[in-house]
Amino acid sequence: MKLYYHPASTTSRPVVMFIEDNAIPAELQVVDLFTGEHMGPAFSSVNPSQLVPVLEDGDFRLTESSAILKYLADRIDSPAYPKDLKARAKVNEMMDWINTQLCRDLAYGTVYAQIFPGHKRPTEEAQRVTVAWGQERAKRWMAVLDQHLLGSGKPYLCGASITIADYYGASFVHLAEVIGSDLSAYPNVKSWLGRMKERSTWDKVYAAINGFAKQLPRGQLATV
Ligand SMILES: N[C@@H](CCC(=O)N[C@@H](CS)C(=O)NCC(=O)O)C(=O)O
After folding, report:
1. Domain coordinates in residue numbering, the chain
2. How far does residue 52's CA lie from ligand 1's centre (Å)?
3. What is the residue with the minimal CA distance to atom 15 of ligand 1?
4. Which of the residues 162, 194, 206, 223 has the least number of beta carbons within 10 Å of its own beta carbon?
């Protein structure tokens, strides 16, 4: 198997961490988003959407991080993607929520608009409105995650055991820390993310984004 990815990519990290945690034999090939390699003809023929991650398993090719995690988990018969109909439906529900609500307003609306030049809006007013819109909604989703989806009694997003939803959600929630949030407004989220950070593969998989975060003007960024 082969995974095209970038170490600073939010949607790549959950897949890489799942691969590392489960010692899945996969070649990891960096596609350099910072030099625009993903826009070139070679990678565009792999994924016309010009996005990472992409998984190849023989002549089978799969895009979309959520779909890749589900495929990999089934491929290795992992309990992290339960077979029970209702347990699996809850994992799917959580991953869809992360991939829509949290991704849209925390990742795109609040974080990327502030830290990636390509996402900055063309005027100061457009930038201000975009970030204010994203920030307000992201705070709401974080509170829903904290108080309702997680609550105080659950160690992992879908119950007592880790699932692929935890790998997925951790990468998006960690973006709040990238822009300087200490997550103190969301104590259950903070505990859960702390649990994910205790995994032996976390530091390696998150090294690139944490290095990138150190260069940001934190304190001057709108956060959640
Ligand atoms: N829905 C896709 C989104 C993938 C995505 O947005 N990848 C980003 C990195 S996190 C990317 O490749 N960005 C390149 C660009 O926007 O030019 C997935 O979940 O895999």
Report:
1. 2-75, 85-214
2. 5
3. 51
4. 194
The model's pLDDT over 160-179, given as tens digits with 9 standing for 90+, comes to: 999 999 999 999 999 999 99
Fold held by 85-214: Glutathione S-transferase Yfyf (Class Pi); Chain A, domain 2 (1.20.1050)
- CB under 6 Å to ligand 1: residues? 9-11, 33, 38, 50-53, 64-66
If you measure from the C-alpha of residue 11 to the centroid of ligand 1, how many angstroms do you get, rounded to a whole number? Answer: 6
pTM recorded for the entire structure: 0.97
Which residue has the least CA distance to atom 5 on ligand 1?
51
pLDDT in tens, 193-221: 999 999 999 999 999 999 999 999 989 99
Alpha carbon of 196 to ligand 1 centroid (Å): 22
3-state secondary structure the chain: CEEEECCCCCCCHHHHHHHHHCCCCCEEEECCCCCCHHHCHHHHHHCCCCCCCEEEECCEEEECHHHHHHHHHHHCCCCCCCCCHHHHHHHHHHHHHHHHHHHHHHHHHHHHHHHCHHHCCCCHHHHHHHHHHHHHHHHHHHHHHHHHHHCCCCCECCECCCCHHHHHHHHHHHHHHHCCCCCCCCHHHHHHHHHHHCCCCHHHHCHHHHHHHHCCCCCCCCCC
